[in-house]
Amino acid sequence: MTEFRHLGDREVHQGYIWKVVVAEFESPAGESFHRDIVRSPGSVGVVPLALDADGVATVVLVSQYRPPYECAVIEVPAGMRDVPGEPPAETGRRELIEEAGLAAGEMTHLLDMLPSPGLTDSVCSIFLATGCIEVDHDRHGPEEQEMELLHLPLDAALAMIDSGEITDAKTVAGLLATDRRLRLGVSTGQ
After folding, report:
1. Cα(93)–Cα(5) distance, rounded to whole angstroms?
2. Are 71 and 164 in contact (CB under 8 A)?
3. Pairing mode, if any, of strands 5-14 and 43-51?
4. Parallel, antiparallel, or unpaired for β 133-134 and 102-103?
5. pLDDT tens for residues 90-136?
6. Start-to-end Cα distance in the chain
7. Enclosing H/E stretch for 26
8. What does pTM read for this prediction?
9. Quick one: which of 126, 130, 108 has its CA closest to 59?
């Protein structure tokens, strides 16, 4: 593809974590155009996985109220990369403790996804957490205080994708990547 050029940003809003800008670009044909972009530090999602004695895979998900949708959304534990310089795996470990009360023994990078490339520059790094042990959670804010933990067989969680009960992009991607990894026999650190 012929190269587009980013000419600069004009900030229109600075929030606690995100910044909204009007970005100016130049097309390969020399045409100038503008796009509204949410600048984000990115996020991390974690699929906590356990295998029982029979090798049945289970995952821990959260059901959390999400104000933009005005309903609870079933998700993997996740959070923003809001600590400058913190490696994504450490953000994932922190969020897993905060939301699910689980400390990961091993964190394995599954994938990076672009959650909404027409809107934001955010990248969501998704990890597989194994060898988890229960610890005290450290929930923040009313949504997290009221969240529910769901301990589900991986197959049941995958069926919830098919039925439309799980629609969150990072969760769908993380669960499918975890299932694929298990089916291919790739080590899960268990």
Report:
1. 37
2. no
3. unpaired
4. antiparallel
5. 999 999 999 999 999 999 999 999 999 999 999 999 999 999 999 99
6. 43
7. strand 19-26
8. 0.91
9. 130
